[in-house]
Specification:
- This protein is mainly α.
- The protein has two domains: about 150 residues, no CATH class; about 35 residues, no CATH class.
- It is about 55% helix and about 5% strand.
- α3 packs antiparallel against α4 and α5 crosses α6.
C-alpha cells in the first residue's frame, strides 16, 4: 500500500513514474498479472489484485467504477444537467419547460434502476483487462475505444463472468446468450431515450 501511495504522489507531482513502455510481459508484473480471457487470437490479462495496478491506470479504474455505479457516463450526466438548467431557466416566449424537466428526471431515475449500464461497464472492463500492446502505467483512450469495439463486434461477454467483473455485476445466474440479449435491448432503449431529450 505504501508503494501505491508513493506512486500516486509522484504522479500528482508530475514526475514520470515509468519512463519506458512497460507491458504485461515486463518482469515487474510477473507475480501480479494473470491471463483473464481471449477474444479471437488476442489474450487479455488482469491484475490479480486491483490495488497493485500502477497509479496512472488505477485513476481511470476509479473514474470508470464511479460512472458504472451511477449507471451513466460523466459527459452524458453533465449534458443532462445543462439541459435541466436550460429547461428550468426558461425564456420569455416559452417559460419553464416542466415537461422536459420531468422527462430528464424520469430518464435519470430509470438509469438508477438498471442492474448495470452496458456502456459504462464496457469502459470499466477496458481498464481492468488489457493486452500485451498496452502500457500498464497509463490508459490510452483511443486504443481502448478500439478494444471495446472489437469486443462488441465479436459479441463476446466472457469477461463479464471473469473476476472481478462477475463479483461486481452478480451475473452468476445468467447465461452468456441472455446477457448479450439484455445488452442489445438496453443499448437500443437508452439510445432512444437519450435521443428524445437531445432533440431539445
Amino acid at each position: 500500500m505504501k508503494a501505491l501511495a508513493h506512486k500516486a504522489l509522484d504522479y500528482l507531482q508530475g514526475k514520470k513514474v515509468k519512463p519506458d513502455f512497460t507491458n504485461v510481459h515486463h518482469p515487474e508484473f510477473s507475480e501480479s498479472v494473470e491471463p483473464a480471457f481471449k477474444v479471437g487470437n488476442t489474450q487479455y490479462y488482469r491484475f490479480i489484485k486491483e490495488t497493485t495496478m500502477p497509479w496512472g491506470r488505477y485513476m481511470f479504474l476509479q473514474t470508470f467504477l464511479h460512472a458504472q455505479e451511477l449507471r451513466i457516463d460523466t459527459d452524458l450526466l453533465k449534458g443532462y444537467i445543462q439541459l435541466m438548467k436550460k429547461a428550468i431557466n426558461g425564456n420569455l416566449k416559452q417559460g419553464i419547460d416542466l415537461g422536459l424537466v420531468f422527462k430528464i428526471v424520469s430518464q435519470l431515475e430509470s438509469r438508477t434502476e438498471l442492474e448495470f449500464e452496458a456502456e459504462t461497464t464496457y469502459r470499466l472492463a477496458s481498464v481492468m483487462y488489457f493486452d500485451q500492446n498496452e502500457n500498464l502505467y497509463e490508459y490510452d483512450r483511443a486504443y481502448n475505444d478500439k478494444k471495446i469495439a472489437t469486443w462488441k463486434e465479436a459479441r463476446t461477454v466472457d469477461f463479464f463472468y471473469t473476476r472481478p467483473m462477475s463479483e461486481l455485476l452478480g451475473l452468476s445466474g445468467s447465461s452468456p446468450e441472455d446477457l448479450q440479449t439484455f445488452i442489445d435491448q438496453q443499448t437500443e432503449l437508452l439510445k432512444e431515450l437519450t435521443s428524445e431529450t437531445q432533440e431539445h
